[in-house]
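Exercise 7. Given the encoded structure of a 76-residue chain, write a plausible sequence.
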């Protein structure tokens, strides 16, 4: 939306905003709570995103893990 200069149109619905995504949108990337930090870091690097949606065995949302979360866990 920022590329399309649509930031002034903040009264649109979430559905409308999703439909306006550019063709090169990378999509939503997921992981499981049982994945290793190494595999999650590799996914973040390969997909060039900073957050992954954590899903359970039924593909239901469990949480969100960010690059900052992982770095914090490694440093502490």
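Solution.
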């Amino acid at each position: 939306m920022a590329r399309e200069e649509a930031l002034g149109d903040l009264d649109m619905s979430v559905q409308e905003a999703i439909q306006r995504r550019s063709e090169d949108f990378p999509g939503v990337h997921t992981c499981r709570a049982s994945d290793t930090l190494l595999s999650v870091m590799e996914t973040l690097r390969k997909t060039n995103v900073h957050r992954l949606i954590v899903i359970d065995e039924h593909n239901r949302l469990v949480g969100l893990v960010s690059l900052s979360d992982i770095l914090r866990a490694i440093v502490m």
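Remark. The beta strands are 30-32, 51-55, 61-66. Students should compare their own answers with the one above.
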